[in-house]
Amino acid sequence: KNIVILLSGRGSNMEAIARAGIPGARIAAVISNRPDAKGLEIARSFGIETLALDHKAHASREAFDAALAAEIERFEPDLVVLAGYMRILTDAFVRRFEGRMLNIHPSLLPSFTGLHTHRRAIEAGVKVAGTTVHFVTPELDDGPIVIQAVVPVLPEDNEDSLAARVLAQEHQIYPQAVRWFVEGRLSLENGRVRVRDAQ
Ligand code: GRF
């Protein structure tokens, strides 16, 4: 299965997926909207084709997303993976890849959509935090949940220590979700996630 990964920065989730060595998965390309994203360098070190598409060079969000979709299609993806891709996607883009586009968000959705999830979790005083892989729907950081991982929030935690604990779990569950998809076990059916048992 061909996978195209979109990112904007560090790329540690992309790296975790690449390192997982999922049988039958081929990362056809890693695309960034930021030419200086660290994740592009990491992808190249894995021998993965990379592409930077600068959103500032496009007049509108619609124009940029149309150009991005055209680039993605060149790689004939079975799956599009958002891994720290920090731009809001247009509805047209989301519909185009519906049922074959995943995202990871650093909270236990539906709690704490949006930014600064760890800071907000600490401020709210929640005792557990975590991360969610979900199919992408037009609502930001929302969409049918594929897999979640839970971590404790400790009394001495700050934003960074909690973020690190959550990130370690992201590196486990994102490759797992991709593996399920590549094995043909994960699908979106009438808006609901279905994970079939292994054969
Ligand atoms: C992750 O925490 C992910 O949940 C969020 O952005 C971060 C990306 O990190 N969407 P990285 O670029 O994969 O290291």
TrEMBL record:
Q: Does the keyword Transferase apply?
A: yes
Q: Which Pfam families match?
A: Formyl_trans_N
Q: In which pathway does it act?
A: Purine metabolism; IMP biosynthesis via de novo pathway; N(2)-formyl-N(1)-(5-phospho-D-ribosyl)glycinamide from N(1)-(5-phospho-D-ribosyl)glycinamide (10-formyl THF route): step 1/1
Q: Which SUPFAM superfamilies does the entry link to?
A: Formyltransferase
Keywords on record: Purine biosynthesis, Transferase
Q: Taking every annotated instance into account, which residue ranges of this chain make up the domain Formyl transferase N-terminal?
A: 1-178
In the UniProt record, does the keyword Transferase occur? yes
- The active site annotation covers 105
The record ties this protein, via Gene3D superfamilies, to: Formyl transferase, N-terminal domain (3.40.50.170)
Spell out the reaction equation it catalyses: N(1)-(5-phospho-beta-D-ribosyl)glycinamide + (6R)-10-formyltetrahydrofolate = N(2)-formyl-N(1)-(5-phospho-beta-D-ribosyl)glycinamide + (6S)-5,6,7,8-tetrahydrofolate + H(+)
Q: What is its EC number?
A: 2.1.2.2
The UniProt annotation places N(1)-(5-phospho-beta-D-ribosyl)glycinamide binding at 11-13
Point out the annotated site residues (description: Raises pKa of active site His).
Answer: 141
Q: Note the superkingdom of the native organism.
A: Bacteria
UniProt GO molecular function: phosphoribosylglycinamide formyltransferase activity
Q: What does this protein do?
A: Catalyzes the transfer of a formyl group from 10-formyltetrahydrofolate to 5-phospho-ribosyl-glycinamide (GAR), producing 5-phospho-ribosyl-N-formylglycinamide (FGAR) and tetrahydrofolate.
Q: Which HAMAP family match?
A: PurN
Q: Which family does it belong to?
A: Belongs to the GART family.
What name does UniProt use for this protein?
Phosphoribosylglycinamide formyltransferase
Instruction: Supply the source organism for this entry.
Output: Uliginosibacterium aquaticum
Q: What is the lineage of its organism?
A: Bacteria, Pseudomonadati, Pseudomonadota, Betaproteobacteria, Rhodocyclales
**Gene behind this chain?**
purN
